[in-house]
Amino acid sequence: NPKDVATSFYHFSKGMATLPSYETWDDFFTDFMTKKLVWGCYFEYLSEWNKYADEENIMTITYEELKENRALGVKNIAAFFGIPLTEEELQLVVERSSFQSMKKNSEKTHGTSGNIFFRKGGVSDWKNHFSEDQNEKMDKAFEEHVAGTKLGKKLKYDLYCKA
Known about the structure:
With 163 residues, the protein is mainly alpha-helical. It has one domain: Rossmann fold (3-Layer(aba) Sandwich). Helix content is 61%, strand content 0%. It contains eleven helices and no strands. Helix 5 packs across helix 6. The model has no long low-confidence stretch (mean pLDDT 88).
């Protein structure tokens, strides 16, 4: 969900001392929508990746898909890489890849930045930040840049049908 991506970037930027920090969500949102973030424009990033979405060595999966059914996501990822998993191995991966498990181990895996990488792990936190106007602007940008693409259709399905 591009709205959750923006929300995550905002909190990530606030937590990382090496990145520009924003005093307000509104300041961040303006930079996000005008392509002024350190990593560039999210919609251009999606558009660029869309060029490769049909290649056999590319698999697309959304965070929302994994949140909805992590076991199925893990099975699909393992199959994509040609890795057979026993039921026991599948369950182990599912348990260890839960947000709660990764957050718990984040200091070991990511050092002092662990708490920045693993903040909430939910979906739809954007609703706590976006104004109605910002929501409309994001929807319009999504429609203009990626809605008609393969990735856009997948994201739109997750955004509107699963939320």
